[in-house]
Amino acid sequence: xxxxxxxxxxxxxxxxxxxxxxxxxxxxxxxxxxxxxxxxxxxxxxxxxxxxxxxxxxxxxxxxxxxxxxxxxxxxxxxxxxxxxxxxxxxxxxxxxxxxxxxxxxxxxxxxxxxxxxxxxxxxxxxxxxxxxxxxxxxxxxxxxxxxxxxxxxxxxxxxxxxxxxxxxxxxxxxxxxxxxxxxxxxxxxxxxxxxxxxxxxxxxxxxxxxxxxxxxxxxxxxxxxxxxxxxxxxxxxxxxxxxxxxxxxxxxxxxxxxxxxxxxxxxxxxxxxxxxxxxxxxxxxxxxxxxxxxxxxxxxxxxxxxxxxxxxxxxxxxxxxxxxxxxxxxxxxxxxxxxxxxxxxxxxxxxxxxxxxxxxxxxxxxxxxxxxxxxxxxxxxxxxxxxxxxxxxxxxxxx
Length: 400
Description:
Elements: H1 3-10, H2 17-28, E1 36-39, H3 48-55, E2 64-68, H4 77-82, H5 99-102, E3 107-111, H6 118-130, E4 132-134, E5 141-143, E6 147-152, H7 156-161, H8 167-173, E7 176-179, H9 187-205, E8 211-212, H10 214-222, H11 228-242, E9 247-248, H12 250-254, H13 278-302, H14 348-362, H15 367-374, H16 378-388
Parallel strand pairs: 1-6, 1-7, 2-3, 3-6, 8-9
Antiparallel strand pairs: 4-5
């Protein structure tokens, strides 16, 4: 099948040579059983490559199962992947097949594989090497014949050095490496993608498609697109819905593009050695704004605009290191209101603890909603709960 036919079949837009090379590699190795590791920033479209490999493989008539490893709580991930026996843990009212058992003779795609805890990594390595797995609560080894394709946006060599990812598993998964370039390195594809999304939304919302004026196209292609294709699609949808004029100028487009800060979240690719602190800094950053609101409330209670309650320092971007965070200790003057005891300033640990507790309390223990409130993944929230030894009385969202 020709390259353009494959692109049309799987809805791939773009002519970048590295994108074409990734697709060509996927087709070439589809007939083998080699493991594949797909890397690239969040939002670049890594999930289409496993679909191509499966569709052109001898396994195409069997199951294809895609799993987001970062969305499964650490306490249940082994049960999800490898299954469990009846009575193996509280709530296990019947035996259940795991994904590896259900995908026998087929293909399994492990997205965000870098989020797997180390014990689960060891069990995954065994499956890759021998095809054997053991259900949770069982002592009997079972066999499965599964093609494993994995993907992640982490820097694996950094994760290996930090002891967060097994080196032997990395090399076992990386039998065939495929890299998807970020959108900012595919300048020629940006406008093509935008127009495709604009046409899709015009059809969806029954309205004429928006078009970019030359200055807007120049701005579109010059922007860094930290969220890659996912962000571009969101911008195209917002403009399609909110703008009455179908001709979009650069001034109009600029309203939909966040400030282009190369140090901003979400997709720095773990190459600086500081990526492990991103989630903690994100929580602290959010906490600063919460503290500022509390100070404003204190001023209102005191009723003195010129009171000595100090300002919380402005923070316009997350610093590279926690040690670079500004001093935001707050001392509330006793004045004539209520004497305030002198307390030990909040530590970073205290701030994380307090903020996570508040989010869990607000959402009545629902981790999914609390994680969304904090701007972190459920996996990260689960890890912080364990580190801080918080009893959150976990509840499932109604949709779960």
